[in-house]
Amino acid sequence: MAEPLFRVSGLKVALPDMTRKPVIGRAPLVHILKGLDFELPRHQVTGIVGESGSGKSTLGRALVRLIEPSAGSVIFEGRDITHLAEADLKPLRCNLQMIFQDPMSSLNPRRTIGAIIAAPLKQNGLGDNIAARVAEALRRVGLPENFAKRYRHELSGGQRQRVGIARALALSPDFVLADEIVSGLDVSTQAQILTLLEKLADEMGLTVAFISHDLSVIRRLCKQVIVMRNGEIVEQGPTDALFADPKHAYTRDLIAAIPLPEIDADWLKAG
Amino acid sequence: MSACLDISSLSATLASGQRVLRSVSLAVEPGEVRALVGESGAGKSMIGKAVLGVLPPSVKIAEGSIRLEGTDLGTLSAKERRRVIGTKTALIPQDPLTALNPSRRVGPQMTDRLIHILGWDSGKADKSIRQLLDEVQIRDPDRVMRAYPHELSGGMRQRVLIAAAFAAEPRLIVADEPTTALDVTVQKQILRLIAQLQKDHGTAILFVTHDLGVVAKISQKVTVLYAGKVVEEADTAALFASPQHAYTRALMAATPRYTDPMASLKPVDDAVLAGLSAEIAAADQSWRAGHG
């Protein structure tokens, strides 16, 4: 068995709750992640599912060190990055990329698509031959080269998300965090974006953490799943096994609550 | 018996002349749940807004009629129209947080409409709201009515708005993506509540959604829309058994399905969309020819 890309143990994140901060003194802590143990195997898409407030986005942000864990450890490619300082993290950043939920707010309205995709390349010392690299990134996500001259508002929702993917993959990272990347999209656009991500992950051998509230999307895309609730992992394992035989009552509830596009008169009554 | 809602060849345009609704006709019988399904820009919310008389100022009705229980809204004065719409219809909105005023307690917001539009006295309004809060399984109505919206969870807020919609005893409720913002387990509870109240009160519902899964579970009839045009209309059971239009079939194949993952999430074929666009362009051309 190859070494996993991420090895996470006892991961805890607590943040100050500013709504309960006294006038003088420290705000009390809210415990968002309560000790998580899991691994992300290389070259696989792992789904992280849970309802709002379950801590799935916080978990993603801790993986790419947008937030610093308060306890436990995050080992990335054999290296402990749990408390690395930003300067030491910087060389790792090109391997830890992120696709955001809302491409409207994660693409700068004043810069061209080309400049947006070029920014992380320049940041990481790949500033030579930039036009060709941008063109290659656009081609990879199925957008024409001349989109480099356009602005965010000239694109449809699906095209914007393709740009988000192009930017994340321009550096050929080992790891990509995809946080609810299709939840704002129509079903037909959602299908396009997911099949694109599926194809690219396969071609480029990416390791992906795919965060979603939608188990039916995860069923299609992910080899294994982590089910979260209230900052804890309630169940994890291969996707096939989890759907065939969900062990935890919460996982069963989540699956049973998905409205399948087929007639079932008893569905509303059950559960 | 006349239909609860009868929309007849309704077209709406933007100032630029672009049509956003394209000769939409549909009739909803009393007590029927009709799903309007389509992707963004399909005009499904626009139809709901037209029925409620709250189209954005940029959208003008160019042709066609909307009848509520036989009354043609287009023939009424603005004041009369507001009264008819206000007494016969109600809305369950998508986002329960923005639909509630954050700086007022929930209780008065629920009774407002009963007192000011329907002219009920406050005792009757209060009694009705409490009855409905009980029906949506809120066990501590006093606390909820005294609460501010931010003190309630998303599911609780949506229950409050469902109770408020049914309390006014409308004939027709427009439910505009009422579960889209909710978690999947909460969505199921809310769908169950809407179905139960709908049955108990015999209210017709125009249920706007983008989710064919929700359509299958909640509606008796369904209208599939694309770019403001009715693509297909059928009994829900018939639509899922044998979808007639290529676009309907494509939408079904694009919808994720955990029981058959590899056969779902299929991108819509460009040829299907090209066919639809051609159909729409031809229809627009002949419509323009007929309307100068």
Structure description:
The complex is a heterodimer of chains A (271) and B (292). Chain A has a single domain, classed as Rossmann fold (3-Layer(aba) Sandwich), CATH 3.40.50. Chain A contains 10 helices and 10 strands. Chain A has helices at residues 56-63, 86-93, 103-106, 113-123, 130-140, 157-169, 187-204, 215-221, 239-244, 249-256; strands spanning 6-16, 29-40, 45-49, 71-76, 79-80, 96-99, 175-179, 207-212, 224-229, 232-238. In chain A, helix 4 crosses helix 5, helix 4 (113-123) packs parallel to helix 6 (157-169) and helix 6 (157-169) packs parallel to helix 7. Chain A is globular, with a radius of gyration of 20 Å. The model of chain A has no long low-confidence stretch (mean pLDDT 94). Chain B is an alpha/beta fold and 292 residues long. Helix content of chain B is 45%, strand content 22%. Chain B has helices at 44-52, 78-88, 96-99, 106-116, 122-135, 141-146, 154-167, 184-201, 212-218, 236-241, 246-254, 270-290; strands at 5-14, 19-28, 33-37, 59-68, 71-72, 89-92, 172-176, 204-209, 221-226, 229-235. Chain B is globular and about 55 Å long. Chains A and B meet through helix 7, helix 8 and helix 10 of A and helix 8, helix 9, helix 10 and helix 11 of B.
Short précis:
With 271 residues, chain A is of the alpha/beta class. Chain A is 35% helix and 24% strand.
Helix content of chain A: 25-40%
Query: Count of DSSP E strands of chain A?
Result: 10
Please identify, by name, the CATH architecture of chain B.
Answer: 3-Layer(aba) Sandwich
Largest sheet of chain A: 6 strands, mixed
Briefly note the CATH topology name of chain A: Rossmann fold
Residue stretches of chain A low in confidence (pLDDT < 50, at least 5 long) are: none
